[in-house]
């Protein structure tokens, strides 16, 4: 997060991370379309608008080669900008992911929900944990998308809670970080069948704002108002 000294604009960096092909580029594409049209999503007003075009660097196959990047501006706080990145999920881009992670304020972990990819998703989560060096949840809010829920044979929220527990990214009710457990959204990134694409973004943006405003960059440990606008 950077605050520009000249114009006071806060730049917030949000990152979509997940295995190759899980849908990160499709998600940012759909988010861009939603915020461009400004039509309400499941009754929820859209609080951000895109600035400029999405920057996508991809191979012919559609796989991301370096990263995708979009800029969004908050409609209610004109001094807040969101820089949204997706990483390239293929194994060979691991060093690049490390660099793209630098300065990230909030992460959405994108799961390919098809059961045969279960282990690959866990590998990707372990890499993220490694790169984040203990800061996930404590300093960097984490949201999970179980993407491709329109397909057959997919995992669901309960399955992924167990994964988070195994990876020590899930706190029990007696822990002070309990309220910052990742929300796990079941999603579809395809525009025609879109589900929870705006909702998951907006929850991450909201949590990032709360960490910044009420926790001085860390997860605040006391109850705070839930209707912080993004
Ligand atoms: N059925 C279905 N297909 C999806 C969904 N999201 C993405 N896809 C498809 O999955 C394929 C890969 O999607 P991408 O968005 O390129 O995946 P990515 O995570 O950006 O992949 P990398 O850039 O290689 O890391 C594409 O053919 C998408 O159309 C979804 O929710 N449902
Ligand atoms: Mg991609």
Explain what the structure shows.
By secondary structure, this protein is α/β, with parallel strands linked by helices. The chain has a single domain, classed as Rossmann fold, CATH 3.40.50.300. The protein contains 5 helices and 8 strands, in the order E-E-H-E-E-E-H-E-H-E-H-E-H. Strands 1, 2, 3, 4, 5, 6, 7 and 8 form an 8-stranded mixed β-sheet that branches. Helix 3 links the parallel strand 6 and strand 7. The longest helix is centred in the C-terminal third of the chain and has 19 residues. It starts with a strand and ends in a 15-residue tail after the last helix. The chain binds guanosine-5'-triphosphate and magnesium ion. The site of magnesium ion has 4 residues, from helix 1.
Taken as a percent bin, the fraction of beta residues is 15-25%
Shape: globular
* CATH class call: Alpha Beta
- The domain tally reads 1
The whole-number mean of residue pLDDT values reads: 94
Question: What tags apply to this protein structure?
Answer:
single chain; 230 residues; alpha/beta; Rossmann fold; 5 helices; 8 strands; 25% strand; globular; binds guanosine-5'-triphosphate; binds magnesium ion
């Amino acid at each position: 997060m950077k605050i520009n000294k000249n114009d006071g604009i806060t730049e917030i960096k949000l990152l979509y991370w997940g295995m190759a092909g899980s849908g990160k580029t499709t998600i940012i594409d759909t988010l861009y379309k939603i915020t461009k049209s400004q039509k309400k999503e499941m009754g929820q007003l859209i609080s951000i608008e895109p600035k400029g075009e999405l920057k996508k660097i991809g191979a012919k196959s559609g796989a991301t080669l370096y990263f995708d990047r979009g800029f969004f501006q908050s409609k209610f706080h004109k001094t807040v900008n969101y820089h949204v990145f997706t990483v390239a999920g293929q194994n060979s881009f691991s060093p690049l992911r490390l660099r793209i992670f630098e300065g990230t304020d909030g992460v959405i972990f994108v799961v390919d929900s098809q059961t045969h990819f279960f282990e690959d998703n866990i590998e990707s989560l372990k890499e993220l944990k490694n790169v984040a060096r203990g800061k996930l949840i404590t300093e960097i809010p984490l949201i999970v998308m179980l993407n491709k829920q329109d397909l057959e044979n997919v995992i669901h929220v309960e399955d992924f809670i167990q994964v988070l527990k195994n990876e020590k990214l899930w706190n029990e009710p007696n822990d002070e970080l309990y309220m910052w457990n990742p929300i796990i959204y079941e999603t579809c990134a395809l525009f025609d069948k879109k589900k929870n694409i705006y909702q998951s973004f907006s929850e991450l943006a909201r949590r990032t704002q709360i960490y910044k405003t009420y926790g001085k960059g860390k997860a605040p440990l006391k109850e705070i108002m839930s209707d912080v606008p993004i």
